[in-house]
Amino acid sequence: MFGLIGHLTSLAHAQSVARDLGYEEYADQGLDFWCMAPPQIVDDITVKSITGQIIQGKYVESCFLPEMLSPSRIKSATRKIVNAMVHAQKNGIDITALGGFSSIIFERFNLSKIRQVRNIELEIRRFTTGNTHTAYIICRQVEQASQKHGIDLSNATVTICGATGDIGSAVCRWLNVRTDVKDLIFVARNQDNLKELQANLGRGKILPIEEALPLSDVVVWVASMPKGMQIDTTSLKQPCVLIDGGYPKNMSTLVQEPDVHVINGGIVEHSLDIDWKIMQIVAMSAPARQLFACFAESMLLEFEGWHTNFSWGRNQITVENMDKIGEVSVKHGFKPLIA
Ligand code: NDP
Q: Domains in the chain, ordered, with CATH?
């Protein structure tokens, strides 16, 4: 059985979802209440592959919210993630994806040192960040969306905002060796990490986002920001493709320029309907078929019987593993969303 650990994008989002699901007692509560709420399994899932294979899974709501990343709430944030993992393991789930901020918190606060939680010893091999599949899907979105909108990668500049992160660095490595992209621009805050990435790849410019945007034909947004940022869309080239892979979204600007195309980054569409309710909550346009690529990774590992932490640690995703997960993604009927 596969599992998905997820969370909502803000307190307001959590309150409105609780109301929609009929949990009135949660709907009127503030952040203190959500800090106390235990993880819950809120969906049972059945997925059919285009090969005909059928698998079962469960969705674990961690009750983490990005507002808990403030210094005074960090203990709640880390507790949420560990408790959700324990809950998944106790429910016999073989391979569970840590969605959105779950894996970021796990790494940032070094939660791997917590192995014993009450009477449960956490078995790390049962968990995957899902980031290898996410990085693979974002790279395919870069290739396919560029082609669709008349951008020739061999003449194009691609900016990666969040380039030194787990997903961002994998995207940079892939674009470097699997495409003929002309120029890469790296954006993040820590300059030492950016210089290390640049040295490893032997190419690429380091610029602040405001300077990078007017030079870019494609922008990949994979920064771990608790809230989306405003950008000046009038400074963008046309055509331009913006692939927003952040959860919550990295961009909060509504784009009005006719030849600037915003793509829901790191999202796959399955070829067959999935029997679940959960994707309605995160406002996918086709909730029966569209999902986060990290969640799809745990489904792929279950389909293939690879009950192992396929994506783990930080900045260790290899192009070869992206190829490997990409192959089974196609085999089972998942496609990158480029509409
Ligand atoms: P990491 O924490 O590994 O990396 C985050 C990157 O963002 C780093 O390069 C960091 O560098 C940079 N960053 C953070 N804040 C800013 C900022 N204000 N301005 C510029 N750069 C910034 O995160 P992941 O790679 O694991 O995840 C990235 C995003 O992808 C997250 O939003 C996550 O929720 C989302 N995600 C989406 C999935 C999907 O299936 N679609 C799956 C998993 C994650 P620095 O700190 O130096 O600035």
A: 2-131+269-332 (no CATH), 135-267 (3.40.50.720)
Burial call 10-48: b when 16+ CB within 10 Å, e when fewer: ebebbbebbeeeebeebeebeeeebbebebeebbebebb
Give the binding-site residues of ligand 1, using a 6 Å CB cut-off.
Answer: 100-101, 103-104, 130-131, 134, 161-168, 187-190, 193, 222-225, 245-247, 266, 292-294, 314
- pLDDT digits (tens), the chain, 339 positions: 999 999 999 999 999 988 888 888 888 999 999 999 999 998 999 999 999 999 999 999 999 999 999 999 999 999 999 999 999 999 999 999 999 899 999 988 888 888 888 888 999 999 999 999 999 999 999 999 999 999 999 999 999 999 999 999 999 999 999 999 999 999 999 999 999 999 999 999 999 999 999 999 999 999 999 899 999 999 999 999 999 999 999 999 889 999 999 999 999 999 999 999 888 777 788 999 999 999 999 999 999 999 999 999 999 999 999 999 999 999 999 999 998
Q: How far, in Å, is the centroid of ligand 1 from the Cα of 162?
A: 5
| Burial degree of 180 (CB within 10 A; 0-12, 13-18, 19+) | exposed
